[in-house]
Write a structure and sequence with these properties.
It is a single chain. The protein has 233 residues and is of the alpha+beta class. It folds into 3 domains: 66 residues, 2-Layer Sandwich (Herpes Virus-1); 52 residues, Classic Zinc Finger (Double Stranded RNA Binding Domain); 81 residues, Classic Zinc Finger (Double Stranded RNA Binding Domain), CATH 3.30.160. It has 5 helices and 8 strands; from the N terminus they run αββααββαββββα. The longest helix has 54 residues.
Length: 233
């Protein structure tokens, strides 16, 4: 199985730690942003930051490296829909801060959110196989127990609060968060159905009342009409 290469790491300037801008390569083979290297030389007596070799003043932009960088950025920016920016989107905690991708899962054990690429790396490690992955959530630190630092996976019925597995006491009535969520959703659905039933009953009673009023009005009109006929000479 081929191992992925972190190309992004090789396209960053060792001085400013950002992507190269007008990259230049020294005689010793190390590359820097042109501006960063010029500033470094003025402060360090023309010595390479990496190997301390003397850096000569005659330098030109490394066009091959600059082209690679441009093509790399075009590929990375081709699908901006993967990047965060919309309201409610959760960024990947492992991506570069300058352009994080949108998280697809959050790990309640690691307390990190992962994009598609970093999620595969997370799942490839055997020690992570038992970790609980959920849909991306904000403020993951609030999902951990403040006493034990473990994920809040259980619900204590007595105290009506979320707890971790280490918070459980003997004989305590606890259920999983999923079970409690399902119970509350069922209660909500039952309440909605009951409200709908009451509404339907009210509507039926109103319809019956309207029908009664209509019948009474028709009967009254009929009696009045018959009375008028009987009074004619």
């Amino acid at each position: 199985m081929a191992t992925a290469i972190d190309v992004f790491r090789h396209l960053r300037c060792p001085i400013c730690k950002n992507l190269f801008v007008d990259p230049v390569t020294t005689g010793c083979g190390h590359s820097f942003c042109q501006r960063c290297l010029d500033q470094h030389i003025r402060m360090s007596n023309q010595q390479c930051l990496i190997c301390q070799e003397t850096v000569y003043t005659q330098r030109s932009v490394n066009t091959a490296l600059k082209t690679i960088l441009q093509e790399f950025l075009q590929v990375q920016m081709a699908d901006l829909s993967l990047c965060t920016g919309g309201r409610g989107e959760i960024p990947c905690d492992i991506c570069e801060e300058s352009l994080p991708l949108r998280a697809v899962k959050s790990c309640l054990t690691c307390l990190h959110s992962y994009c598609e690429r970093h999620l595969k790396r997370h799942q490839s490690l055997s020690r992570h196989r038992g970790h609980k992955l959920v849909s991306p959530v904000e403020r993951l630190d609030e999902k951990a127990c403040r006493f034990h630092g473990r994920p809040l996976e259980l619900y204590c019925k007595r105290d009506k609060r979320l707890i971790c597995t280490l918070c459980v006491k003997t004989g305590e009535d606890v259920v999983s968060i999923e079970t409690e969520r399902a119970r509350r959703e069922a209660e909500q659905q039952n309440a909605i159905k009951e409200l709908e039933s009451m509404t339907n009953q009210s509507e039926n009673k109103l319809e019956d009342l309207q029908n009664t009023v209509t019948k009474y009005q028709e009967s009254s009109d009929r009696q009045r009409a018959e009375g008028n006929k009987g009074g004619v000479c």
